[in-house]
Amino acid sequence: xxxxxxxxxxxxxxxxxxxxxxxxxxxxxxxxxxxxxxxxxxxxxxxxxxxxxxxxxxxxxxxxxxxxxxxxxxxxxxxxxxxxxxxxxxxxxxxxxxxxxxxxxxxxxxxxxxxxxxxxxxx
Length: 123
Known about the structure:
Elements: H1 3-23, H2 29-41, H3 45-58, H4 63-75, H5 79-91, H6 97-102, H7 113-122
Helix pairs in contact: 1-2, 2-3, 3-4, 4-5, 5-7
């Protein structure tokens, strides 16, 4: 079995573990963060987006949660929502300029006229 196959098995195991914790009512914020990241690595962007929405609902003042929500929205094709979440992240204090410019998850936003306004605000 090659490395990629083993990694896929491990990722599937992680996802099942976190989903089980959710089903049992043991979905702490940390479990949700890990599940959202696992979904993203597995390419399950809509599932990750749903978890990111839950995280924002739990902690609406967390700029990182809004930034991650923007990423998952973008990957799910929800461009307007992604800009809204990114704008909220900036309002709440997100300030990682380098990440914003390099994050592949936000690639689909870069050709939109609203992108430059976001970059200017942060830079």
